[in-house]
Design a protein that fits this description.
- With about 160 residues, the chain is an all-alpha fold.
- It has a domain of about 100 residues.
- The chain is built from six helices and no strands.
- The longest helix is centred in the first third of the chain and has 35 residues.
- The protein is elongated, with a radius of gyration of 31 Å.
Length: about 160
């Protein structure tokens, strides 16, 4: 139901803002602002997206939790979609999502509403994740000085 409300409310808000801003500034300036925000938004999303990808890669290489970096990357992608959508309201939300403090607050809010019940590292071996007992030990290799056998064959093998 809330999704339906968003799909109806947002276009109505955008149309109202276009009428108000267009009446105040005029049509050419209003369209110019829409095109300018799309170009500026594309540039900012590209730069911040590359930084987010770099952070995700760094987290994965250092075996750190990439959840927050992935969430920031997803929010930057959403910001890009909103900035490419013509409209003042969507541009405002898109530019807000490009601000790291806004993304951090939004991430913390989303994280507080999600409960992770379990997590399994797919790179761990099956033995380490099962309930088997693991016995740790050391070994020493003993080499025979005289490789010739001191006893006869057992009868199980042929020489």
């Amino acid at each position: 139901m809330w999704l339906f409300v968003l799909f109806v409310t947002i276009p109505i808000v955008e149309i109202a803002l276009f009428i108000k801003v267009g009446g105040w500034l005029g049509l050419p300036q209003t369209l110019g602002i829409v095109v300018l925000t799309a170009i500026l938004g594309t540039f900012l999303v590209r730069n911040q997206g590359l930084m987010a990808m770099s952070q995700i890669k760094s987290n994965l290489q250092e075996l750190r939790d990439p959840t927050e970096s992935l969430a920031h990357g997803a929010m930057i992608l959403a910001a890009g979609l909103l900035l490419l959508t013509p409209g003042f309201f969507t541009d405002g939300v898109g530019f807000a999502l490009l601000l790291p403090p806004v993304r951090t607050i939004l991430f913390k809010w989303i994280r507080s509403r999600i409960k992770v019940q379990s997590f399994v590292d797919p790179n761990m071996s099956q033995q380490a994740t099962s309930n088997h007992t693991v016995i740790d030990g050391d070994y020493v290799e003993i080499e025979d000085e005289d490789p010739s056998p001191t006893h006869g064959t057992s009868g199980w093998t042929r020489h």
